[in-house]
């Protein structure tokens, strides 16, 4: 339920798409009613003495982050994560909307019936708003249109084994059926873009190496896996108007191929956002590099893998050149025993949803970027991808008053005791990050303040009919 009273949020640093300015955000009934200059705000206060004023002073006032790539794992694998813990971590991290991936829950979100089961688990247990991805697996093409009607933001598929049996990867013939089912729906198909190589000689060579050395795992998932996947995806683009999105780009080498595919689609007359060809990268690829990963520490393991420092710098350049579209967490936790010291056998996934904003800002500010970079890559672009840009992702009139007060100059060190997601293992423990979320508001209601959640879960499920 939205806050009903009118409120005026003030800050010397109000962050909109146009820049950073001294002013205020007028909120009524949970929605943004106006964006005001400081002079306009002062006049408004003088003329409306009963207005509730929330003055953040020097704290930046920004739109809440939209994280479009989160694995909540409930129901079925709630020992790994759950809606209550994941969304409390999100609220503490300045995220006001997450979008849950179709796996690793049991059942996966591959039918409307399975979506209903997941929504039932989430209802009443979410501190922030939650959207849902559907899944494309072998043989479920007849379920896709019903999932679109139910309100999923799009669909995710794997081009290589997903790591869980109930979400098998798809081949070219399955993609043909999925694209045909989605044509004309306005939905999109997102890809885990790695294609497994069948090379027994290479596999045997890797198996003889020390599995605790990160370099061994890195060698097992070369950039060619990502390149081959982008080639496969690109082969469909002149045959369909369905939007495509590549999740967690790790290898910078694939970005020119994606950019070429986007340009060709735009030239052919595709009018979708970014020509209907978009790509994300993740905090771990922009913050970490292979050279710094210690031996036997599989909390750093993810797929595709964190690559070398040169690759990290290229990803940053592509992001700033608008050849990558957004930055998300790919929060993918598991229980501690699945993170053994053997990098070839350990679960691949990094937990970070609570710290994504600070991870990004630590690197972005060091590169001379201003606060609008957060809004661009972590708020408006993920909202646009998920089709919720008319409700979320920016300080604009008519959008939900999902707001944060953020101290971009403060620092903190990640320790296990401040982590709100269920399993505390993360590569960021002990690292000092820049940028502290002081308050988080969902549709004008305070949900997090100075290290503490406020009240009961107030989040909504962003679904049409379930």
What features would you describe in this structure?
The protein has 466 residues and is an alpha/beta fold. It has helices at 38-47, 83-92, 112-122, 144-150, 172-182, 200-207, 214-220, 223-234, 255-267, 283-287, 309-320, 356-366, 372-385; strands at 7-16, 19-28, 31-37, 52-55, 60-63, 65-70, 95-100, 129-132, 134-135, 155-158, 188-192, 243-246, 277-282, 326-328, 403-413, 432-442, 445-449, 452-453. Strands 1, 2, 3, 4, 5, 15, 16, 17 and 18 form a 9-stranded mixed beta sheet that branches. A 6-stranded parallel beta sheet has the order 9-10-11-12-13-14. The chain is globular, with a radius of gyration of 22 Å.
List the helices and strands and how they pair.
Layout: E1 7-16, E2 19-28, E3 31-37, H1 38-47, E4 52-55, E5 60-63, E6 65-70, H2 83-92, E7 95-100, H3 112-122, E8 129-132, E9 134-135, H4 144-150, E10 155-158, H5 172-182, E11 188-192, H6 200-207, H7 214-220, H8 223-234, E12 243-246, H9 255-267, E13 277-282, H10 283-287, H11 309-320, E14 326-328, H12 356-366, H13 372-385, E15 403-413, E16 432-442, E17 445-449, E18 452-453
Parallel strand pairs: 1-4, 1-5, 6-7, 7-8, 9-10, 10-11, 11-12, 12-13, 13-14
Antiparallel strand pairs: 1-2, 2-3, 5-15, 15-16, 16-17, 17-18
Helix pairs in contact: 6-7
